[in-house]
Write a structure and sequence with these properties.
The chain has a domain of 69 residues: CD59 (Ribbon). 13% of the residues are buried. Strands 2-1-4-3-5 form a five-stranded antiparallel β-sheet, covered by helices on one side. A hairpin with an 8-residue loop joins strand 3 and strand 4. Helix content is 25%, strand content 29%. It has two helices and five strands, in the order H-E-E-E-E-H-E. It is α+β, with helices and mostly antiparallel strands. It comes from Phoxinus phoxinus (Eurasian minnow). Keywords: Signal. This is Snake toxin/toxin-like domain-containing protein.
Length: 99
């Protein structure tokens, strides 16, 4: 049977709790969904869920309908998936209303 490293577990828990205490309030991001063709969206502010730690700006590459875009809360994993897509321009940030 393997022994658990109590110090390792404590360090991991401390690191996770430090992340929670660092941000006392939830992240706020711009929320806006454009349909393209020059149709602007009505911007608003979205309060992110605790596990969603980034604001994102996702823009589809120009096509027949023009480049639609989305500004919203986004997880880092989802952002990275978009960053590696050739059909999308993705930018993510971690401060209030940075998108």
């Amino acid at each position: 049977m393997k022994q658990f490293c109590a110090v390792c577990i404590l360090m991991i828990l401390t690191h996770d709790l430090a992340g929670f205490s660092f941000r006392a309030t939830a992240l706020r991001c711009n929320l806006c969904v454009s349909k393209g063709l020059g149709n602007p969206c009505t911007p608003s502010v979205q309060t992110c869920l605790p596990h969603v730690t980034n604001c994102g700006y996702i823009k589809l590459k120009p096509g027949l309908m023009g480049p639609p875009f989305i500004r919203s809360c986004i997880s880092m994993a989802t952002c990275w998936n978009y960053k590696f897509s050739e059909a999308v321009e993705a930018k993510c940030c971690k401060t209030d209303l940075c998108n």
